[in-house]
Amino acid sequence: MANNQSIEKLKTNIYNFIIENSGIIMKDFYNNFQGESKSLVNTALNELIETNKVVKMKAGRTVKLCVVAKSPNKYLKKLEKQVEAVTSSKIHDCENIELPNWYIGVSFKKSTSKNYSQAVALSRLGLNYEEKMEDTLIHHSSYTKDSRSFLIFMNLYNIIKDWNSCRIEINNKFLFQKSLDTLTECYCNKCKSSPKDSFCSGYNLKTANPFECHRLNINIGGTPWWKYGYYDAKCIWHIDKEDIRKTVNENSYNLNCCPDFSNPRCKIALNKIPDMINPNINKNWIKVNDSIEPKDEEFALLVSKNLEAASLLDISKFTGNKSSDINPNLDSNFSNFNTSNNSTNNINYNSGCGCLFLIIIVIVIFAYIFS
């Protein structure tokens, strides 16, 4: 009896979870129920599938779980209430709606799929839902970069992406599948993350980067900016900015559709990267074979985001200023060092002259005595 109650409770939890995460792949599904017995999870899931409340959908090599839309559920009822409240006027006034700088448009035709009614409900939650009648009924709506709006789009996309009539556009431009896959994977994760502000620039040492896009792979997890370069004859490391620029251009090909990716911001970051680093003077950097490395992880994390710190000799008082501002007496220190060397040389020279004069006097005295 207790076991049956556990399964019923688990079924409810699983069902509600799939409602909120329609289209979740099996691996991620099981990861969210690691605290439960896997056999009980499988039993509860199979019962939901047998009662046509949940369906397994193949997407390439993966299997995804979706709620069966034709069965009554809280999710659809909630959507229907939202639709009634916000979309009745939009259907007629959609031409007067001012679209934001970035929006993603979705359209699909009437379908015999059992998930069609759920797709329509999600589409009605879009920014400017409209219906058109051509050879068949076409549903169209737009979504913004706002987390809630984008996640609604993701739920819709997971349902209709394999339909022949599915069409996705960003700012009225058709989006290729590879770019869309990059967007849906990365930006969807950002919408779910907390804090969102640190997602692009990197949460940790592996993903931290100055371009505010860890997908460029110009970070320690890929190739950090300081690895692009070469040594000259004086063992000074020169940063190859042109090579970095090419890498940014190549890796950003499928990122330009992202609402938070910025080419101008990448150019600004590239200009802030120092032209050269001298590990002979700057002890924050270490020569490693034919390359260069930050002295430790703390400094690596600092210069992964704060490019101004890369040239500093003393980072304990890092304020984001240049090294000349931090240590204005740097040149005079070297001058003093040279001056002190000259003084030492003068002392040694004078001492040498005195000794030679003394020896000459002794020789003269001995010569006089024995002559």
Structural features:
Arc Repressor Mutant, subunit A, 4 domains, 13 strands, 371 residues, 14% strand
Radius of gyration: 34 Å
**Total tally of structural domains:** 4
What would you call the shape? elongated
Oligomer: single chain
Count of DSSP H/I helices: 13
Q: Helix/strand-derived class?
A: alpha+beta
N- to C-terminal separation? 131 Å
Average pLDDT value?
75
Strand content: 5-15%
Number of distinct beta strands: 13
Detail the poorly predicted runs. Answer: 69-76, 82-97, 317-353
Describe the largest sheet. Answer: 5 strands, antiparallel
Can you give the helix content as a percent range? 40-55%
Spatially, the strands of the biggest sheet line up as 5-6-4-7-8
Keywords: Membrane, Transmembrane, Transmembrane helix
Transmembrane segments: 349-370
Write structural notes for this entry.
By secondary structure, the protein is α+β, with helices and mostly antiparallel strands. The protein folds into 4 domains: 2-67, Arc Repressor Mutant, subunit A (Orthogonal Bundle), CATH 1.10.10; 74-175, no CATH class; 197-326, no CATH class; 340-371. It has helices at 2-20, 26-31, 38-50, 74-86, 90-93, 116-123, 147-160, 177-192, 241-251, 263-272, 297-305, 323-326, 330-369; strands at 24-25, 54-59, 62-67, 104-109, 130-133, 137-143, 167-170, 173-174, 229-231, 237-239, 276-277, 285-288, 291-294. It has a 5-stranded antiparallel sheet. Strand 5 (130-133) and strand 6 form a beta hairpin. Helix 6 (116-123) runs antiparallel to helix 7 and helix 7 (147-160) crosses helix 8 (177-192). The protein starts with a helix and ends with a helix. Residues 69-76, 82-97 and 317-353 have low confidence and may be disordered.
